[in-house]
Amino acid sequence: MCDLVARTGRHQQRYEDGRRLVAGCIPFRYRSNNDETSDNGHKKVVEVLMINSQSGPGLLFPKGGWENDETVEEAAAREAVEEAGVRGDIVHHLGFYDFKSKTHQDACCPEGMCRAAVFALHVKEELTSWPEQSTRQRTWLTVPEAASRCRYQWMQEALLTGFTDWHDKWSKGGGGTNCDPA
């Protein structure tokens, strides 16, 4: 049984310019790999964590509504815990991505337009119990594997442009974060 409880409802949901505001993250970690070697001699490969969709095929990154009583970073970290059962450090804002939700149309946003703030989350802990574990499976994938399995184009764009561009710069010493790839 999980002691954590997922937030539900829309009474604290943020909206801006007719769009629902969403926060999400691309959880990542490093694992040893005999095929790739970093400059300092440690063998590593970056993996990202995806979860199954509750409404169809393909995989997703954790995301959900940004509420009035939290920062966007807190919302992204909360979604990672609720949906994927991971905790970690938000290390970089990857960008804003607009999309249309087919399932979340309401009085404040009748056309279902959303704007997602997406962050890189360096995973420090995988929980054995989390709020949505009965309906979510998590899968660690390489970036190319994840890109090919993304359910939504905007998430694939966040991965391939936002995350990959940031991570490539950071791993060469120019990304401006404190996560350690070793």
Question: Could you explain how this protein is built, in words?
Answer:
- This protein is an alpha+beta fold and 182 residues long.
- It has helices spanning 72-84, 143-149, 153-171, and strands at 15-16, 19-31, 45-52, 59-60, 63-65, 86-100, 113-126, 138-142.
- It contains three helices and eight strands, in the order βββββαβββαα.
- Strands 1, 2, 3, 4, 5, 6, 7 and 8 form an eight-stranded mixed β-sheet that branches.
- A hairpin with a 2-residue loop joins β1 (15-16) and β2 (19-31).
- α2 packs antiparallel against α3 (153-171).
- The longest helix has 19 residues, at 153-171.
- The protein is globular and about 50 Å long.
- The model has no long low-confidence stretch (mean pLDDT 85).
Key attributes of the depicted protein:
34% strand; alpha+beta; magnesium; 8 strands; hydrolase; eight-stranded mixed beta sheet; 182 residues; NUDIX_hydrolase-like_dom_sf; pyrophosphatase activity; 3 helices
Rg of Cα set: 16 Å
Derived from helix and strand composition plus strand pairing, the structural class reads alpha+beta
Helix percentage range:
10-25%
How many beta-strand elements?
Answer: 8
Question: Which term fits the overall shape?
Answer: globular
The low-confidence runs, each spanning 5 or more residues with pLDDT under 50, are none
Q: Number of helical runs?
A: 3
Overall mean pLDDT? 85
